[in-house]
């Protein structure tokens, strides 16, 4: 288990306690797309990065994917294409849609993120299955709702509501 975990506790009216522990895995990339990248190609065409999906995804609205071809004798078959009867390596690059200049967008140092890993469930210290944990939470929710409704009825009967 990693050093970081998200822990949630549910305590039932009878005092039993469910603990849900989800391991948080640290993921750090060496580099990532730079959302502030801009570039002017050799023909004077301006290119830039933009963000989408709440600034989580960097896109390049001024670039297109261009297939390049090169001769490599032992390339995997999946990367080969037929160019005028010859087998050549095909690979995608980013480029200007107006002049075809190959452009490599800028990058920046990667950030650290945490992804959810394994989740474990215990009731009063005993490991249980996810199904048993869901059943516990469902029962806890029903009992909690019932207590709230009972308290509201009492408060209403006593003139507080």
Q: Strand share of the residues?
A: over 45%
Number of helices: 1
- How does the overall form come out from the CA principal axes? elongated
User: In which range does the helix fraction lie?
Assistant: 10-25%
Describe the structure.
The protein is of the alpha+beta class and 161 residues long. It has one helix spanning 130-157; strands spanning 5-11, 17-28, 31-33, 38-40, 46-48, 50-52, 57-59, 64-70, 80-83, 86-95, 107-109, 112-123, 126-128. It is built from 1 helix and 13 strands; from the N terminus they run βββββββββββββα. The strands form 5 sheets. A 4-stranded antiparallel sheet has the order 1-2-12-13, covered by helices on one side. β9 (80-83) and β10 form a beta hairpin. The longest helix has 28 residues, at 130-157.
Concise overview:
The chain is an alpha+beta fold and 161 residues long.
Keywords:
17% helix; 161 residues; three-stranded antiparallel beta sheet; 2 domains; single chain; alpha+beta
List the SSEs and their pairings.
Elements: E1 5-11, E2 17-28, E3 31-33, E4 38-40, E5 46-48, E6 50-52, E7 57-59, E8 64-70, E9 80-83, E10 86-95, E11 107-109, E12 112-123, E13 126-128, H1 130-157
Antiparallel strand pairs: 1-2, 2-12, 3-11, 4-5, 6-7, 8-10, 9-10, 12-13
